[in-house]
Amino acid sequence: MNMFIFDHRPKYTEMTTKTGTRRKTAKEETRRLILEAAFELFEHQGYRNTTIRKIAEKAGVGLGTVFQHFPDKAFLLVEVFETDVGGVIEAAFNTKPADNIRRQLLHMAGALFDFYGKRPRLSLQIISEAFQSEGAASAKLKAQMNDFIEMITGLFREAQNRGELSPDTNCFDAALAFWSSYLMCLCMGLWNPKPNLKLQLEQLDRLLGQHLSGIKG
Q1: C-alpha dist (Å) from residue 167 to 84, 105, 182
Q2: End residue of a domain, out of 10, 45, 70
Q3: pLDDT tens, N- to C-terminus, the chain (217 residues)
Q4: Pair (143, 131) in one structural domain
Q5: Looking at the structure, do residues 37 and 143 belong to the same domain, yes or no?
Q6: DSSP H or E stretch at residue 186
Q7: How many domains does the chain have?
Q8: β-bridge partners, 216
Q9: Do the Cβ atoms of 115 and 88 come closer than 8 Å?
Q10: Of 127, 97, 99, which Cα lies nearest the Cα of 111?
């Protein structure tokens, strides 16, 4: 009897594991289909003209299935952008110049300007959601914003250690000042009917020059 149990328990465990893996894969595939449908509809119909029902129909799933994965449309918008934005920031950080804080910051900003400039309408909407809503989407966006500011603070600290900045520089305040200029220039570019973020990057460079001139050692 003990031998019988010994022979069958591993087979049952293996079957359960395979079933769980299949369910996880199916869930991930459903999530991917919903995100792809949402992105396509947001891109071509606009965020405001897209409903959760239209997204469900496009993805080939039930309305309830969408809500099982995403609490609302705003959260879907954030999810559509978040992975791509995270990849852009990571790639820019890994390819930034070895020194010179001004060139490093412009390199980071340029990569993000290029990304947002390819989809200006949606970019403005996601910025709006970050500051207007109080739901899960806003919390997710604000967390990403805080991570970005923390990364920029780290760049200022490294520059300070290299002697590029005054020893008494408050690196967090410097990062906030840069982020404020970055966001203003980004929004001004996106508000233009024909966004030209190259010009906005040049403006950011001028603002950054003025900003750094007051904290250089």
Answers
A1: 36, 19, 24
A2: 70
A3: 444 444 544 555 565 665 666 666 778 889 889 989 998 898 888 888 899 999 999 999 999 999 999 888 888 888 887 778 888 999 999 999 999 999 999 999 999 999 888 888 888 877 776 666 677 777 777 888 899 999 999 999 999 999 999 999 999 999 999 999 999 999 888 888 777 888 899 999 999 998 888 665 5
A4: yes
A5: no
A6: helix 171-191
A7: 2
A8: 165
A9: yes
A10: 97
